Each structure stands twice: as structure tokens, then as C-alpha cells.
Amino acid sequence: MRILIANEARSGAGGVESYLAAATDGLRARGHEVALLFANSAAEVGPTAIACGESWSVADLGLTAAIRTAAVWRPDVCFSHNMRDLAVDEALMTCAPLVKMMHGYFGTCVSGQKAFLFPAPQQCRRLCGAACLVHYAPRRCGRLRPGEMVTNYRWAARQRALFPRYRSMVVASGHMRDEYVRHGVSPDRVHAIPLFAAPQRAQPPSQSRLDVLFLGRMTDLKGPALLLDAAALAAKAIGRRVSVVLAGDGPLRRTLRERAAILDGVDAELPGWIDTPTRTSLFGRSQMLAVPSVWPEPFGLVGLEAASCGVPAVAFDVGGIREWLTDDVNGRLVDAGDTAAMANAIAGLLRDPARRDRLADGARAVAARLSSDAHLSRLETVLERAAA
Questions:
Q1: Residue 315 to residues 249, 322, 343, 378: CA-CA distances in angstroms?
Q2: Mean pLDDT (the chain, rounded)
Q3: H helices within the chain, ranges in order?
Q4: Which sign, positive or negative, has the C-alpha torsion 184, 20, 291, 356?
Q5: pLDDT tens-digit profile of 198-234?
Q6: Which phi and psi angles does 36 have, rounded to 5°?
Q7: What's the farthest any 2 CA atoms get from each other in the chain?
């Protein structure tokens, strides 16, 4: 097949760029020809590049010229990803059948978070529509900027109007498939294909063991404050101090550092964003990964990345986490927002090394099952059917 990938950027630091870099290499290895149409300027660079023999920038060429040039390439199918300018998706439909991969709650939530922040962070299960505007400010769905709220609402409505025009849609979890079916997409047109983690090998720990690792943005929705509270409770339960690394950055980082300093029984480090070698080293040291998100993660790829290094996870049961985490098979799954339950899960694994080792074996098995080959085989089928 001749597959035209479409994305906002040709290179960047986001998970979508990392996914597309790996998926594009995999599709080429399977004998497909791949080109790229991207919305941003070619002058924009980032740490992860999507490598294609031919690529065209909408910002540099203009939409009409970029689409015309891509059409001359004669794609069999277009495969679109993050695209803020929906005119690009609309124009791509004139080139070839268009398959859309939804990496987030695009068209199903005004803010894209699918969560309320007030009076406490919790998952939102509403259908996206005009009534969302009533809840947006009181429930702190997003930033308190009326103009931004209206702009985002109109964008979500426009994205939702495109659902019937996509030849098919791809999401990363059964949870996300259910979300789009709830919003009117026919079940036979939306396909849940779990993501994959790049193979990696954690090095044997050269430093002292680390009890709990967190990787992500320091926001209320990601739950790092809940993790610190859970670690303090776990320390009390097992009668020793619990070591925690919270790697990442965000608006809560300073507050978290101050809170960690006064919590009994917790030794916390907050190194900020870390590079790939440091990340791999931390996986090698860690007894477990914590995923304390209170928003419905579309998938939660960090858990699968840890699993590929034999690190089990302790996570709140939200969103698509169940796609890769089964309770007592490759980690522990506890009720969303239940700090005491997370503390018990952490304490249980620290008390019982044999159980932790069994869950580590389960983590490796899940990572092997959710491989790039498994993902690409299913994706290939979807793209081939669309092209036909």
C-alpha cells in the first residue's frame, strides 16, 4: 500500500510523534510506501522525527498546494492523527479514503480532559454537547477563559461532524472505543488496537532499590499528590520509610516538593523531566510504577513501557488502564481516587517480594503480547480494508 500519514508535526517531543516514528518504520519494514503530510512548518524541530522519504508542510506550501502535491503521490489510504486544523482532514478526504486515529477525547469533550476538577478531580461521563457549557466553569473542566471555552466547543462540534466521513477510526483501548460509540460512531467503524512499547532492557540496579516510581506531568489529573499520601500510609503500614521518585514537571512540582518534605516516612526525589538513559535506569531500580491518574487515561503507555522492563504497576482503575493492567496478574488495580487502597497495594508488594516477582513476570508477558508486530498487523488490516 501507499500510505499517507498526516499529523500536526513532523518532529516533536510528544507521544504521538514517538508512536508515528516507530509505526512508520514498522510499516516500511512490511513493504509499504509511506509519505507524510504535516500541518506545521518544516523549520520546527523536536527530539523525535517521523522519517519518511517524501513529506509536505501545509504551513510552508499552503493547504491547497500541499494537498495537490500529496494527491499526485497517489496514496491508497490516508492515516490522520493529531490535527488541530480540521480543514486538513477535510481536504485529505479528497485524496484517498481517510482513517483517523484518535489519541485523546477529540470531539467527545470540550476541554479534552474528560474530567472535572471541582469540587474534586473525577472522571466525566457526559456526552459532549451544549450542556457542557453549563458545567465548564463551575466544575473547572478547563481554564476559566470564556473565549477559549467557546472556541474549544465549536472545534469539538466540528470534529464530531467529521466522524461519519472517516472511512474508519482507530483508538488505543476498549474504553476509548466505547467513548466514540457513545458519541454516535458505528461499532464496526471504530477499532481498538492497543499501543506498544519500544523494546528496552532495564539495566541491573547499580544503586539502592527504589520503592515507587512516577513518570508524568505534575498536575491534579495525574494524581502525584495522592501518590505521596499513599506512600506515607504505606510506610506506616510496613514500618519503614518508602522511597519515591516523581519524574516530570508541571504546575504542582514546587507544592509536591514542599509536601514531600513534611510527610512522615517518605523519601521523595523530584528530578524534573529525565532523558531516556535515566528513565531506563530508574526502571531498573524500581520495585513498581505508580499510575495514580484520576482522569480517564486513554491508554496509559507509561505502564506498558515499565512492563517491558519487568516493572509491575499499581494504578487507579480509570479509562484505558485495563487494556494493559490486570489486577494481580501484572500489577494492582484499585478504585479511582482511593488513596488508602493504593497505599495497601504498595505496602502489599513491598512486604511480599515473591508476589512482586510474580507480577514482574506477568508484566513482561503483557509487554510481549502487546508488541509492535501485534499492533501493526491489526492496523494493516484496518488500512487495507479502508483502501479497498
A1: 20, 10, 11, 27
A2: 94
A3: 15-29, 58-61, 63-72, 86-92, 132-136, 146-162, 174-182, 224-238, 253-262, 276-285, 301-307, 339-351, 353-369, 372-387
A4: positive
A5: 777 656 655 679 999 999 999 999 999 999 999 999 9
A6: -130, 130
A7: 68
The answer to whether the CB of 232 falls within 8 A of the CB of 344 is: no
**What is the identity of the amino acid at 224?**
P
The DSSP line for 290-326 is EE---S--S--HHHHHHHTTT--EEEE--TTGGGT--
Can you tell me whether residue 155 is helix, strand or coil?
helix
Query: Which residues lie below 8 Å from residue 188, measured CB to CB, with a gap of 6+?
Result: none
% of the chain residues with pLDDT over 90: 88
Nearest C-alpha neighbor of 283 from the set 357, 222, 209:
209
Q: How many CA atoms lie within 13 A of 167 on its CB side?
A: 20
| Residue 294 CB-density burial (10 A; 0-12 exposed, 13-18 middle, 19+ buried) | buried
Mean per-residue pLDDT, 310-331:
97
Cα separation of 105 and 33, whole Å?
A: 30
Nearest to 362 by CA among 334, 338, 333: 333
Distance CA 388, CA 361 (A): 41
> How do residues 366-382 score in pLDDT, each as one tens digit?
999 999 999 999 999 99
